[in-house]
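WP5 quarterly update. Target: Amino acid transporter transmembrane domain-containing protein. Source organism: Brassica campestris. Length: 119 aa.
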Amino acid sequence: MDIITANLGAGLISTIVQLGLCINLFFTFPLMMNPVFEIVERRFSGGMYSAWLRWLLVLAVTLVALFVPNFTDFLLHLRVCVTCFVSFAGVQGRDGESGHSDSGTGRGSCCVGNLEFPE
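Structure tokens (predicted):
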């Protein structure tokens, strides 16, 4: 079975655990979607709050999660690839500094392993 709570069997404890997971998802989904809402609202509604746009995004995410086969496996592989890339490539701050500088000039560089690529 893919869902670990299905291994608990039927009973009060299993129901309480599944209810707790549903409550957790209900309260954390808006927090995870907030950056997406900000970006889409900036792009399509001029930075103004748009309830219909937020509903549309939630509906789109729900439909993708429902109809894409093995969606959890896709998310797992996506997360692994992104974290691997971020761990190898130095993440720069807003001022362009990444912990490396080119000969004291203050210009940032992208570091991949032991190689440095000036930007």
